[in-house]
Design a protein that fits this description.
The chain contains ten helices and eight strands. It is an alpha/beta fold. The protein has an eight-stranded parallel beta sheet. The radius of gyration is 17 Å and the shape is globular. It starts with a helix and ends in a 16-residue tail after the last helix. The relative contact order is 0.15.
């Protein structure tokens, strides 16, 4: 199936389920993103800051850009003027830098706290206790130019569906608890970003409101001869 067919099918399914579709377009050429855009997709997610900035400049200005990969504090300034949602906030230090750059851009930046739920050492994220510690801190309360919209989690890369379901279930339960305890008066705390191409159906079953799909939309990723480097941004 073509990118156009995939987008139309997925958007139709997600609209019925009231789930937001993020098209993860890392390493994909601008032409692929334009095809998805022409099929009606408006939310795109990128992993690398440099690639994100280049695509932002090359594509229509009504696209909502999400940063879904690990974000270094020294790269925040490049995306602060336009980013719609940062999925991967995994420290107070990063949140403070986002707040600082958002203030410079005279805007409020929406963020998700990335929570570590996988049984893998390679994943980033805050522990459940660290999220609570962050939300209780005076340093967090002082941040006026960020808005925490919810949580993001990446399940273990495994064929064990029971394990994946349990990890998503734990994050959904934690999300509901935070909504009651810390965001009761904030209707904007409404986003649970769980699920990628390999496990999005399980994530939706367990309460996901936002899925991040790459290969399901664009096909399998082919390795680039010269992968994009972050070093071009100083």
């Amino acid at each position: 199936m073509s990118i156009t067919d995939n987008i139309k099918r997925l958007k139709s399914e997600m609209d019925i389920l009231n789930v937001t579709l993020v098209a993860v377009s890392k390493t994909k050429p601008v032409s692929d993103l334009q095809e998805a855009y022409d099929a009606g997709q408006r939310i795109f997610g990128e992993n690398q800051v440099q690639e994100l900035v280049e695509k932002f400049e090359a594509l229509p200005q009504d696209i909502e850009w999400h940063l879904v990969g690990h974000l270094q504090t020294n790269k925040v300034k490049y995306i602060a003027p336009f980013i719609s949602l940062i999925h991967s906030v995994d420290s107070l230090k990063l949140l403070q830098e986002i707040n600082k750059q958002a203030e410079k851009s005279k805007r409020v930046i929406d963020c998700l706290l990335q929570v570590y739920i996988a049984d893998e050492d390679t994943k980033y994220g805050l522990g459940f206790d660290e999220v609570i510690e962050l939300l209780r801190s005076e340093a967090f309360t002082a941040l006026q130019n960020i808005r925490v919209r919810g949580l993001m989690g990446i399940a273990t890369n495994t064929d064990n569906e029971k394990q994946i379901k349990e990890e998503f279930y734990e994050l959904d339960t934690f999300f509901d608890g935070l909504a009651q305890s810390y965001f009761r008066k904030q209707e904007s705390f409404d986003t649970l970003s769980m699920g990628m191409s390999s496990d999005y159906s399980l994530a939706i079953e367990q309460g996901s409101t936002m899925i991040r799909l790459g290969s399901t939309i664009f096909g399998e990723r082919k390795p680039l001869p010269n992968p994009p480097r972050e070093g071009g941004l100083n």
